[in-house]
Amino acid sequence: MVSGVVWRFGLALILVHVAALTMIASPPSCPPECICLSQTQVLCNSGGLREIPVKLLPATVEHLSLTRNHFPVIRSDAFSGLRALKKLSLDGNNISIIKPFAFRGLPRLKEISIQQTTLATVAQFSFAGLQNISAIYLSHNRIKKVEGYAFAGTTNLKLLVLSNNPIVKIESNAFSGLSIVERLTFPSGVRLLEPDCFNGLDTVGYLKLAYMDLPFVGNGTFRGLTNVGVLSIQESDLGVIRPGAFEGLTFINNLNFLNNKIDSIQEMMFGPEQRIRNVKFQGNHILDIPKIDSIYFAVNKLTVIANHFPCDCHIHALLEGPLTNDSVYEFTARNFCISPLEYNGRPMNELDFDSIGRCQEEVTRSNLESRDLPSNTSKNNYSVLIVTLTITTLAWTRIQLGLV
């Protein structure tokens, strides 16, 4: 009996000893170029890596830093198997291509940082299908374009940063399938917004478009963009705003046009079906006064202040149009002249509008309109003349006959 107990106790000691030796001989997995601070935090910075060592990394890793290595291509499913990963940094690499679905299979991923790289294109589906991502940092790269559907199926994104990139063109459907974004900020210098470039971008808290240099805002530019808290178009040269530019833009709480230069507005229409709540038109320099029938605002609140308009013969059309918001007095007190030179910077209410003649085309149109009315007016005048002559003739006849 005693010997059996001793035997079992001895066996237990042997097993403990073997387990201890095994742990010493086989330490937790960690690539030799990396520092594993723990089984959840791994640093592989400046290690000269040319491949992502996925198979050597702990499957439990949550924070992974792979900065300043040599990864020219991030392949599809590049991090497959690291399902616990929450934060990933690829800053400072020579990345030139991110293949479609590069980050697939990372259900817990919250943050990706790819900054200070040579990445020139955000390719189709490269950031697709990220269901729980909170932030994607893509600033300070060489990105010139974002291809269509680059973020398809990605939701719940709080922050997408594209600042400090030489993006010159936003392609059609670039953000299609991207939804529930708190804040989206673009870099300066964008020169072309293709039709439908925001199509499919749904539910954005704040979308800022600033420091653009556009020859025009064309038909369908904002078509398909919906459910936006604040859409701010500011500090940009917008060129010519063409017909249909804002067609299909829906459910916007606040639409701001701030401190832009606008060569001309061929059309700016916001119908009731678009559900635009508030429009602020402030600090803009408009070089050509739009025609009355080219502007329409079916919005809850329209604010037009601190803008500069030409104070020439077209000013009468401006004061009769919808931008005055039914208050010429308030409009002229809160907006300024940009031309002629002697009026530049002066409040519009300092002008004597009666002394400014109407433009020839307005006078001609008015004359044509009054000439068309007239068929009835002329007939009435003619009838009055005939009656007057008849009465005069009868009176003269009565005098001649001695009846008076």
UniProtKB/TrEMBL annotation:
Residues 1-20 form the signal peptide. Keywords: Leucine-rich repeat, Repeat, Signal. SUPFAM superfamilies: L domain-like. Pfam families: LRR_5. This is Slit homolog 3 protein-like.
